[in-house]
User: Which sequence fits this backbone?
């Protein structure tokens, strides 16, 4: 019963901040003060980071294909991304649970996701888009 309640609270905590904002156009993150506004702004940042990570991931797969890399590499890149997504979900759920008693829980979970997404983007760049010569297919992502 307690596990189901935690899942329900986690789901509500993720959805409520987003439903409170009618659209991103109404959101001025430079003036965000309420928990709902701050969380909505953090979600916007996360969405941008996820789009950037996807661009690096797509380019890594494209690069591996274009250079005639072993098909196993492409398969492993995709598998590692799926595994990483499960890890991020689990890790940030633990962070959410750590702060379950406070309104900061959503922000801390979003911050966790942001940090791990930045790190993952860097790892994709470092391992799959950078050559031993030092050249890279895309610019080094911000960390």
Assistant:
């Amino acid at each position: 019963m307690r596990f189901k309640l935690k899942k329900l609270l986690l789901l509500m905590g993720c959805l409520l901040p987003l439903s409170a904002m009618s659209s991103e156009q109404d959101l001025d993150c430079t003036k965000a003060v309420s928990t709902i506004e701050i969380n909505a702004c953090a979600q916007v940042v996360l969405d941008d980071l996820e789009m950037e990570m996807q661009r690096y991931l797509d380019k890594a797969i494209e690069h591996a294909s274009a250079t005639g890399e072993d098909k196993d590499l492409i398969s492993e890149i995709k598998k590692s991304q799926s595994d990483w997504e499960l890890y991020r979900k689990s890790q940030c759920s633990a962070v959410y649970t750590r702060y379950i008693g406070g309104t900061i829980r959503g922000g801390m979970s979003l911050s966790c996701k942001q940090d791990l997404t930045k790190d993952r983007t860097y790892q994709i760049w470092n391992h799959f888009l950078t050559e031993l010569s030092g050249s890279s297919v895309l610019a080094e992502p911000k960390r």
User: Anything to note?
Assistant: The mean pLDDT is 87. The chain is about 70% helix and 0% strand. The chain has one domain: 2-128.
